């Protein structure tokens, strides 16, 4: 029986209780991290006389996630101090939520490893501040004989999502985690880059073992801390299941409720400490923070911003628009890409043609420029115009890339009516459908290639493609569709 705790750093501009920049939650892959202990202030350091101030956007981001997960929203909630001493927590307590979490009693449906829909209950999703980081080697990988502390992460808004123990295999856990990552990214509340610690997983695992006499033996729950990749999540969960069973078979003991870590070098879990109980943290309401009251107007506004989930959008693209499962998944994975796709369809372009161009051409251009699709400067109307030119056989599909590149270099000058087709004409990309020119090219080809003609008449259909290719090569700019139609008529 496996339950999952997921820690999601929210991508707000500032930290949860202070105006210091949220350097950890907004860090992008490949970007240099800030200097250690530079994203701090007196409040983060827990200096006397400092007071916390609530980040409204972090509260809104959390509620959006809860609504997307079908959770009930506590319209009266408060903040609690969770006390423990650790060098990466200068105040000696963490501001969290205990008995009144923002979100509670939700559910998320995902397919399991066999493709069957499985409902995972969400116990709660509460907002808290992240702790700093303890490092056990110096920058550059040099070994040291002590730990060093970087507090840049301390105070980052952290949404902790807790499921019920509804998983029964490591693979189910990973499939849920992958879908949840898509969902928080789709909502725009977190970058959720696991290699940067913006999304971390902690499975809680125990076994219910039925012996040959029918007696059930329940092993103690172990929590594996801070797993930051889907691969590690699956391997660590699978190993811990096997370890608990092996320990019971060998010793007959059920173990103690404990916290474990994962050792990548040995591919094993290891005991860190016995698990604390809630009373060990001495929770009590934070006296420096007022409760948060979420009225109906605010809640209705946030509900309107949530919209459909990535899974719902995938389903709609596949069923209503007829896209392949792969194309539907690619377009629904990123909200910005999906929104751009739908804006393009409003200009009357074919859904499948636009999907193909957006995934295989426009996305590549955006990646090459290290921008999102929405940032590269291409208009939805321009993408629609290029799709229409291809479907009308005015340009070939291979002409899309140079045409998009030219449009991007033109910037805002490319917004006039019929500009895209005019630009394609100037670039020599427009295909000729002049049947006189096509017929002349066909007559010349037939005269010079009697062997290919004989092959076609002998029933070799592949010869037709060869003939079309030779005509296109001999005379640039012809419409291949017209060439094939006229060639068939001539040969008939």
Assembly form of the protein: single chain
Number of domains: 4
Q: Note the total helix count.
A: 15
Low-confidence runs of at least 5 consecutive residues: none
Mean pLDDT: 90
Please bin the fraction of helical residues: 25-40%
Main pleated-sheet profile:
9 strands, mixed
Q: In which order are the strands of the major sheet placed?
A: 2-6-7-10-1-11-14-15-16
Structural class: alpha+beta
Principal-axes geometry comes out as elongated
The rounded Rg comes to 30 Å
Query: In what range is the share of β-strand residues?
Result: 15-25%
**Alpha carbon gap, first and last residue:** 70 Å
The count of β-strands is: 18
SSE topology sketch:
Blueprint (H helix, E strand, L loop, with lengths): L1 E8 L46 H13 L3 E2 L2 E2 L2 E4 L9 E4 L6 E9 L5 E13 L3 E6 L3 E9 L6 E7 L6 H18 L11 E7 L2 E3 L5 E3 L3 E3 L5 H22 L6 E6 L4 E7 L9 E2 L6 E2 L2 H11 L3 H11 L4 H8 L2 H11 L5 H18 L11 H12 L8 H11 L8 H8 L8 H14 L1 H8 L4 H13 L5 H12 L1
Parallel strand pairs: 14-15
Antiparallel strand pairs: 1-10, 1-11, 2-6, 3-18, 4-5, 4-17, 6-7, 7-10, 8-9, 11-14, 12-13, 15-16
Helix pairs in contact: 1-4, 2-3, 5-6, 6-8, 7-8, 7-9, 8-9, 8-10, 9-10, 12-14, 12-15, 13-14, 14-15
């Amino acid at each position: 029986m496996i339950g999952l705790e997921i820690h999601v750093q929210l991508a707000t501009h500032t930290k949860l209780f202070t105006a210091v920049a949220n350097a950890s939650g907004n860090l992008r892959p490949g970007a240099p991290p800030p200097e250690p202990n530079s994203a701090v202030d007196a409040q983060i350091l827990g200096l006397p006389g400092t007071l916390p101030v609530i980040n409204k956007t972090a509260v809104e981001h959390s509620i959006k996630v809860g609504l997307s997960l079908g959770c009930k929203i506590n319209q009266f909630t408060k903040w609690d101090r969770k006390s423990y001493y650790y060098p990466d927590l200068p105040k000696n307590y963490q501001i969290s939520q205990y008995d009144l979490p923002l979100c509670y009693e939700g559910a998320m449906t995902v397919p399991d490893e066999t493709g069957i829909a499985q409902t995972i209950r969400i116990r709660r999703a509460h907002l808290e501040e992240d702790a700093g980081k303890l490092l056990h080697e110096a920058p550059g990988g040099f070994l040291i004989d002590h730990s060093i502390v970087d507090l840049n992460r301390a105070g980052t808004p952290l949404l902790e999502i807790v499921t019920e123990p509804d998983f029964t295999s490591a693979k189910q856990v990973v499939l849920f985690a992958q879908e949840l990552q898509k969902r928080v990214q789709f909502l725009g509340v977190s970058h959720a880059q696991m290699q940067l610690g913006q999304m971390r997983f902690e499975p809680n695992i125990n076994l219910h073992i039925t012996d040959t006499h029918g007696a059930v033996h329940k092993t103690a729950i172990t929590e594996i801390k801070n797993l930051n990749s889907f691969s590690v999540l699956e391997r660590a969960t699978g190993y811990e299941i096997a370890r608990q069973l092996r320990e019971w078979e060998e010793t007959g003991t059920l173990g103690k409720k404990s916290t474990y870590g994962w050792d990548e070098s040995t591919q094993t879990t290891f005991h860190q400490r016995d698990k604390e109980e809630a009373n060990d943290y001495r929770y009590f309401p934070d006296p420096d923070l007022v409760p948060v009251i979420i009225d109906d107007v605010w809640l209705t506004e946030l509900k309107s911003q949530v919209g459909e989930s990535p899974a719902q959008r995938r389903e709609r693209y596949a069923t209503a628009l007829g896209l392949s499962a792969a194309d539907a998944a690619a377009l629904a994975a990123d909200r910005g890409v999906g929104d751009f796709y739908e804006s393009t369809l409003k200009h009357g372009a074919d859904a499948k043609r636009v999907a193909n161009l957006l995934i295989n051409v426009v996305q590549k251009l955006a990646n090459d420029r290290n921008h999102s699709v929405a940032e590269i400067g291409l208009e939805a109307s321009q993408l629609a115009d290029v799709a229409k030119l291809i479907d009308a056989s005015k340009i070939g599909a291979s002409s899309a890339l140079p045409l998009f590149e030219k449009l991007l270099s033109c910037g805002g000058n490319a917004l006039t009516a019929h500009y895209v087709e005019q630009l394609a004409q100037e670039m020599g990309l427009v295909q000729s459908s002049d049947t006189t020119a096509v017929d002349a090219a066909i007559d010349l080809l037939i005269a010079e290639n009697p062997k290919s003609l004989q092959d076609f008449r002998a029933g070799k259909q592949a010869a037709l493609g060869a003939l079309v290719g030779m005509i296109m090569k001999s005379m640039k700019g012809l419409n291949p569709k017209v060439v094939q139609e006229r060639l068939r008529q001539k040969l008939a």
